[in-house]
Amino acid sequence: MLRGYRKEDRPFLNKAATHLNIIRGIANGVFEGSVPWGSGIYEEWFEKRRVFPIVCDDESIGEPVGLLDLFRVDPDVMQHVMILGLYVRAEYQGLGVGTLLMDAMKTLAKRLHLSRVMLTVFEGNAPAEKLYAKAGFVECGMLPGWLQEGYINETYMVLNLD
What we know:
CATH class: Alpha Beta
Number of strands: 7
Shape: globular
Strand order of the largest sheet: 1-2-3-4-5-7-6
Radius of gyration: 15 Å
CATH superfamily: Gcn5-related N-acetyltransferase (GNAT)
Distance between the termini: 28 Å
Low-confidence stretches: 23-34
Number of domains: 1
Mean pLDDT: 81
Helix content: 25-40%
Strand content: 25-35%
CATH topology: Aminopeptidase
CATH architecture: 3-Layer(aba) Sandwich
Structural class: alpha+beta
Order of helices and strands: EHHHEEEHEHEE
Number of helices: 5
């Protein structure tokens, strides 16, 4: 079941933000267990309509199993472009949760009058790359060699909605 974000989703959101495939470029170990925002910041962004989260619940366990958010980087400059973040619990990957969230994101993006949605993915994250390509994202650049257990490239992808 898809739904909007609730404040009680915060622990799940924090876990998603600290997942290796999310923070590996930020230096695992140094920031392990920390989140990229302070207490209350995400909620403030949500209230100010800077972030638009979509949550997927497994009704049988009553918990979130996936989260997608669209984040407005700079509303004054990038009015029609948002950044996508996605996390699906490992045991739910490959079951259609990501596809469900991507389909809902496209509807939301159109309602927000976006022309593009951008994301980054670490090289070697084949399931995510496959999901993004299936959703219509195309590679548009690369940031080479983030240091994380060796050098890992970060691929930039974009979905054109025009």
